[in-house]
Amino acid sequence: MTDRLESREKVTGTARYAFEYPVENAAYAAAVQASVAKGRIESVDAEAALKLPGVLAVLSCENAPELSDTSDGELALFQSRTVSYRGQFVAAVVAETLETAREAARLLRVEYTEEAPDVRLVADHKGLYKPDKVNPVFPADTEQGEPDEAFANSAVRVDAVYTTPAEHNNPMEPHATIAQWNADGSLTLHDSNQGASTVQSMIAKVLGLDPSQVRVVSPHVGGGFGSKGTPRPNVVLAAMAARAAGRPVKFAVPRQQMFATTGYRTPTVQRVRLGAGEDGRLNAIIHEAAEQTSTVKEFAEQTATPTRMMYQAPHRRTAHRVVALDVPTPSWMRAPGETPGMYALETAMDELAVAAGVDPVELRVRNDTDRDPESGLPFSSRNLVACLREGAERFGWAARDPRPGARREGRKLVGMGVASSTYPAYQRPNRALARAEPDGTFTVRIAAADIGTGARTALALIAAETLKEDLGNVRVEIGDSSFPRASVAGGSGGTAGWGTAVVRACEALLGELDGEVPPEGIEASADTGEELKGREEYARHAFGAQFAEVEVDADTGEVRVRRMLGVFAAGRIINPTTARSQFIGGMTMGIGMALMEQSVMDREFGDYLNRDLAQYHVPACADVRDIDAVWVEESDPHLNPMGAKGIGEIGIVGAAAAVGNAVHHATGVRFRDLPLTPARILQEL
Fold first, then answer.
1. What is the pLDDT of residue 206?
2. What does the pLDDT average to over 71-96?
3. Sequence-distant (≥ 6) Cβ neighbours of residue 15 within 8 angstroms
4. Which residues, including other chains, have CB under 8 Å from residue 178's CB and lie 6 or more apart?
5. Residue 659 and residue 591: Cα distance in Å, rounded?
6. Distance between CA atoms of residues 269 and 288, nearest Å
7. C-alpha torsion angle, residues 93, 95, 101, 107 (rounded to 10)
8. In angstroms, what CA-CA distances link 169 with 21, 223, 436?
9. In whole angstroms, how far apart are CA 84 and each of 105, 116, 324, 358?
10. How does DSSP classify residue 615?
């Protein structure tokens, strides 16, 4: 049990985040957002803004420098007069102070030719199409057997549509960048991101620079939840503004502007059909998802992909359809695809359990499989049943009255629900450097990112174990693109990918050591690219089970989660302290998804109405009364040197379904549309 190595720096305020780095002669930028949802910029009147004392520059489509690569439309700032969505950055002001920049931005006058926008996702939208792939490279559709015929002939059937709303990433630290052009033409970026190497390569391409000319520094990051996985417009804006002003520029995206410019989870409309025998064993699984992207660039979320490997059934089909609307581009948000997809699947499984008269835990156990049903690959390890059994025992599931609506305490209806969870055990190529210092200590460098997950501590533990040294003798340096290249902190692949590179670098260093360390030190490096190419083929996934007990106020429709338990099988747990924190964080976010999180689109103006944390509600401490996470021991030799699977995302997967299933058990009413707000509940009660 190890506390975070940087905990003292964080609680004392000495840990510097992107916007906090001291830079001499810094100026400040403020962005101007489009006030129409679709149209064309006819003119930009900057006269009043430029007259304001302290204003250094104004950037827009009328004077911005040409970018070298505009293939990512969200990063192609001020390169076109086209307005693709309301809130799109259409201009920026640079000034001596932040207050001056914001006031000048208010004075800027942008004239538009406006068109009627299309901003609403519906299941029968005429613009729905089949994408070439879904994130990251999965086929959009898969099919085996005769799913329609098998479903029609099944003794027990569920055919239902489930919807999830748009949801926005709201990391505590906003997207922020300090851009500084150096005398040699290179660019230094202090930036809040989930991968310094990725930002370096992408920004270099956009600006027409060699990657070696861009240095990205981000040792501390205040959350991301996927929204900082790739650079957002703030990075390009800061770099352009710094060049225009001839001095360093600081730019932090205000919370209200983040709702249009830094990504969000697409809303979904999902139809799930499950066909089973009278014993609840599945014959057919059909999962079809409709979702949205933007006209700027395509992002197709992999909503139905977990259904491809979760339960056995000889006849199966999954499909994704996407429509390009006049909205911001959706992107990654904690466990993209798995989170909304498993909500639909696990709610449908609960409906099947009720229809077949089978206990919901037992139904999932009966449909377990030791091979990926579609690829045929064996699982490297799969302990879903162990999670379900352990969770049921710990949660007191056996005492649950199976009858919906049977338990009432005064005006409170009480129920229990369960859902399975899963997430792929990804691992990507990485590089690392390990160095022995003459004072007997060791330094490990890798361009990894710690976004609040405890990654720095986990890597130090891995290095210390490999070197057979005390943790206090090992220093891990991360968050700098000048260090060996690393993959992003995303896809729950950080510890697995970075950790493997750290192990190999430390092993190589041990091979170099022979007696005393010379005054200049000794170092060794590793690149895991070839190692990953030679891995055996297995289906690699983490699994879990979520249990929830809720109370529903029959008079107000208010839902409270009394207690929640997650049991996970995620390989070896490197640091129990930070691991439990990650599991509980994901589960808490799942409670928010179930009960309150939704981004409300104004259909007339094409804008999200609730653009701050006063209106976009997330769980507070009072909303999480009793929550716990545990794990089963799991040894998997087919993963990596540590035997670890990712844990950052599986906690949210299945959590909303467990809460929703508990609400059904409490009320006897099946709710299929999230979030389960009091108004929605009360209408049915």
1. 98
2. 98
3. 6, 9, 219, 220
4. 18, 19, 21, 23, 26, 189, 190, 191, 238, 248, 249, 250, 251
5. 7
6. 8
7. -60
8. 24, 9, 40
9. 20, 11, 11, 50
10. T
Q: Where are the beta strands (DSSP E) in 491-619?
A: 522-527, 541-553, 559-569, 601-602, 607-608
Cβ-contact 182, 411 below 8 angstroms:
no
The predicted-structure confidence for 623-667, as pLDDT tens digits, reads as follows 999 999 999 999 999 999 999 999 999 999 999 999 999 999 999
Nearest to 219 by CA among 253, 194, 236: 194
How far is residue 682's CA from residue 284's CA, in Å, rounded to a whole number?
A: 34
Tell me which DSSP letter residue 311 carries: S
User: What pLDDT, on a 0 to 100 scale, did the predictor assign at position 515?
Assistant: 81
Residue 421: pLDDT band with limits 50, 70, 90: very high
Catalytic pick among 288, 291, 338, 649: 649
Question: In angstroms, rounded to a whole number, what is the distance separating the alpha carbons of residues 252 and 33?
Answer: 14
Over residues 478-491, mean pLDDT: 98
Cβ count near 25 (within 10 Å): 10
Q: Tens of pLDDT along 579-592?
A: 999 999 999 999 99
**DSSP H helices in 194-254:** 196-207, 233-245
> In this structure, are residues 569 and 407 in contact, taking their beta carbons and an 8 Å threshold?
no
Contacts of 255 (CB under 8 A, 6+ apart): 170, 174, 611, 612, 613
Cα–Cα distance between 95 and 241 in angstroms, integer?
10
Which residues touch 99 (CB under 8 Å, ≥6 apart)? none
Q: How far apart are CA 473 and CA 374, in angstroms?
A: 47
The tokens describing 650, both together, are: 């599986």
State the pLDDT at residue 319.
98
Q: Is 103 a catalytic residue?
A: no
Type of residue at 32: V
Integer Rg of the chain from CA? 26
Q: What is the mean pLDDT of residues 408-412?
A: 96
